[in-house]
Amino acid sequence: MARTELDLELASIERITPTVLRFGFAVEPGAFEFVPGQFLMIHFELDGEAVQRSYSIASRADVGERLAIAVAPVDGGRATRYLWARGVGDVVRVSGPYGRFTLRNEESPRRLALVGTGTGIAPYRAMLPAVAARAAAGLQTTILLGARTRSELLFADEFRAASGPHVDFVGCVSREAPGAPDERAGYVTAALEELALDPDHDLAYVCGNPQMVDDAMELLKARGFTPRNIRREKYI
What we know:
single chain, alpha/beta, six-stranded antiparallel β-sheet, six-stranded parallel β-sheet, 5 helices
């Protein structure tokens, strides 16, 4: 898929958790094509220095979103300083798409695990239409989302709405008690371990906090997984 670089107008800015903002861009049809799971790069200048930051694309084509990202603030972060100063109608330079953290047509696992923490769940939101199509064909998918508190379970309502006979959602909260039947206390890696995935038949995607990604990788490797059946993406 061809990469492009262009200036896009911010069409919407929405607070979707107590800390995370969703930035939606106005994009002409066909101007920025991507595969769910890919990311874009934001380019800006701050204090006379050129800066770029990458963000997973969180858009769902099935609800009419063309291009959106979910961004959590970073203390002292230059991208936070830049983006939090933007308003609807401002123009932002973006490039992309980048990345291979995508569902691939040639892969046909028995079970798919999508594991994320914080905004690391964003690419899975973009994948929901593809997950639904594969579920209709019988693929079992489990979506594991980890956060400190229930209010930080990003896009949880949408993942719940996607749940069904072949799609399970589990929200893992580490700093408060769960408040719904599909939530549990503790870290997302504990829920991943309990899935008892089979390296001969299953496929795992892991995205988010670098420590969580490393911990999940060690857990999966101990079960016999290799780079052939693990996809990972760290948010640094």
